[in-house]
Amino acid sequence: MPRGIVVREFGAPGVLVAEDLPDREPGPGEVLVRVHAAGVNPADTYIRAGGYAFFHPPLPYTPGFDGAGVVEAVGAEVSAVAVGDRVFVAALGVPASGTYAQQLICDVAAVHPLPGHLTFHQGAGFGVPWTTAYRALFQRGELEAGETVLVHGASGGVGHPTVQLAIAAGATVIGTAGTEEGLDQVRSLGAAHILNHRTPGYLDTVPELTGGRGIDLVVEMLADQNLEADALLLAQRGRVVVVGSRGSLTFTPRTLMAREADVRGTALWNLTPAEKHAALSGVSDFLAAHQLIATPATVYPLDEAARAHEELATQPAVGKRILNCS
Ligand SMILES: NC(=O)c1ccc[n+]([C@@H]2O[C@H](COP(=O)([O-])OP(=O)(O)OC[C@H]3O[C@@H](n4cnc5c(N)ncnc54)[C@H](OP(=O)(O)O)[C@@H]3O)[C@@H](O)[C@H]2O)c1
Questions:
Q1: Domain boundaries, the chain
Q2: Which residue numbers delimit the Enoyl reductase (ER) domain (predicted)?
Q3: 105: which residues sit within 8 A by CB, 6+ positions away?
Q4: How do residues 235-244 score in pLDDT, each as one tens digit?
């Protein structure tokens, strides 16, 4: 029997319990994926805790939107993928049974070809992080070649693809991290400048780094901590795209007036099917044209999903947290 995580009540990481699950068959328009790896995203932890504004699944449920594996069976009316295809799963907003399991039933819209040179662990990190990065940079941030991007929180799951996509689009990237390991990684992704967001005064050099022009686009992972400082760094008509925030803040709107600047939010839950398709196509184009710099993974056995959630909430990010489902 396939194994999977089942949540029977909302709460602390301990509610993630590994169980044997019944074998299932795909219905019309559905695909059965043998999941080899599942991606752990911060949203999974908010949903597990209960009361998450965007998504509140009925209990019991199996968590996880992202994964990678092999198509094991297809239902009627499915022609986009075939048995044996290697795929990555991007199931946020698409009907799916949850990727924290060895077997996944999902709508065919959730599966995408995984190029042969990429591993299942890499593929499991694509869905939410890469779609978010693309959304923030291009669909909301309107990034143009030659601009300067501050990726405020570049060492995590979303930060890695944001840096890579921005550089590929011809931007100059300044990336922040909070540990030496994270800073090394952001440097290895090709960021022109790296800054430690745990060092007091770390943004003081930004005017000099941008030749006095300021930042064109900030992709912000922790807006409640940084939005006021971000706005002060912006160039004329600069933009901040808020990807992550965990609280509120005091803010000086006059900063935006002086720069005719914009603060824009984004949440993947809002993407239309066409926008999601465009974002994932953009990611596929990147993967076809560029050498992926693999995001390092911290890998946990599927049965230890609770530890992955605990550490995601309490430890600094070093790339992506992945569950090994094989
Ligand atoms: N809007 C959306 O649709 C969407 C989609 C995906 C994720 N998110 C949110 O975006 C955030 C990042 O997601 P993720 O998957 O990258 O999480 P993650 O892998 O846990 O990474 C968190 C990132 O935030 C950085 N960080 C910590 N303190 C910071 C500070 N004071 N200033 C700037 N950055 C700081 C971390 O750096 P160090 O660990 O090196 O300090 C790390 O780079 C989360 O809040 C998540 O919920 C939103």
A1: 3-125+296-324, 129-269
A2: 11-323
A3: 24, 26, 27, 30, 31, 32, 96, 97
A4: 999 999 999 9
Residue 318: per-residue pLDDT = 77
Within 6 A (CB) of ligand 1 lie 41-43, 128-129, 132, 152-159, 176-179, 182, 197, 221-222, 225-226, 243-244, 266-268, 312, 316-317
Q: Which CATH superfamily is domain 3-125+296-324 in?
A: Medium-chain alcohol dehydrogenases, catalytic domain (3.90.180.10)
Q: Quick check: do 3-125+296-324 and 129-269 share a fold?
A: no
Rounded to an integer, what distance in angstroms lies between the CA atom of residue 66 and that of residue 63? 10
Can you tell me which atom of ligand 1 is nearest the CA of 158?
Answer: 16
Q: Tally the residues of the chain.
A: 326
**Residue 310: pLDDT over 80:** yes
Instruction: Calculate how far, in angstroms, residue 73's C-alpha sits from the geometric centre of ligand 1.
Output: 36
Per-residue pLDDT averaged across 262-280, rounded?
A: 95
> Percent of the chain beyond pLDDT 70?
100
Tell me the per-residue pLDDT of 170-184, one tens digit each, with 9 for 90 and over: 999 999 999 999 999
- How many Å apart are CA 305 and CA 16, to the nearest integer? 7
Q: Per CATH, which fold does 129-269 belong to?
A: Rossmann fold (3.40.50)
Residue nearest to atom 3 of ligand 1 (CA): 267
Q: Ligand 1, atom 9: nearest CA belongs to which residue?
A: 244
- Taking the CA atoms of 321, 92, 163 and 49 in sequence, report the sign of the dihedral they define: negative
Q: What mean pLDDT do residues 88-93 have?
A: 96
